[in-house]
Structure formats: structure tokens, C-alpha cells
UniProtKB/TrEMBL annotation:
Protein name from the UniProt record: MbtH family protein
Signal peptide: none
Originating species: Ralstonia solanacearum
Keywords assigned: Plasmid
GO terms of biological process kind: siderophore biosynthetic process
Length: 68
């Protein structure tokens, strides 16, 4: 398995999202915690951060966004 300069494998992380629409990076080798689901994005840390920056444009929880 190839590693990056930070010691990560190319797909060491996945992006997960909860019911409130909040995103997080999660290590690919760990089980996804309850209340979170995979988005389908997996890659190195920076690629996952870039994805989250692109899709998570409103940091407010969904329950707060829906009140307006």
C-alpha cells in the first residue's frame, strides 16, 4: 500500500454526514458511529477536506436552517 508524506494511505479517510447535515472526516478503517452515514467520498485527508468545503456551505444544523 502506498503512503503519502503524512503516512496516510490514499483512502485513509471517508466523509460522513449526520441527520443535521453536519459533515466530518472519519478514518476508513473504523466503523461508522451511530447517527452518521457515509457520503461516498473517500480519499486522503486533504481530498476529503476539499470535498467537505465544497458541499457544506451552511454550517448551521438542518433543524436550525428549517426554522427560517
Amino acid at each position: 500500500m502506498n503512503r503519502t508524506s503524512t503516512g496516510e494511505a490514499p483512502s485513509d479517510f471517508c466523509v460522513v454526514v449526520n441527520d443535521e447535515g453536519q459533515y466530518s472526516l472519519w478514518r476508513s478503517d473504523l466503523p461508522i458511529p451511530g447517527g452518521w452515514r457515509e457520503t461516498g467520498m473517500a480519499g486522503n485527508r486533504q481530498a476529503c477536506i476539499d470535498y467537505v468545503d465544497q458541499v457544506w456551505t451552511d454550517m448551521r444544523p438542518a433543524s436550525l436552517r428549517q426554522r427560517q
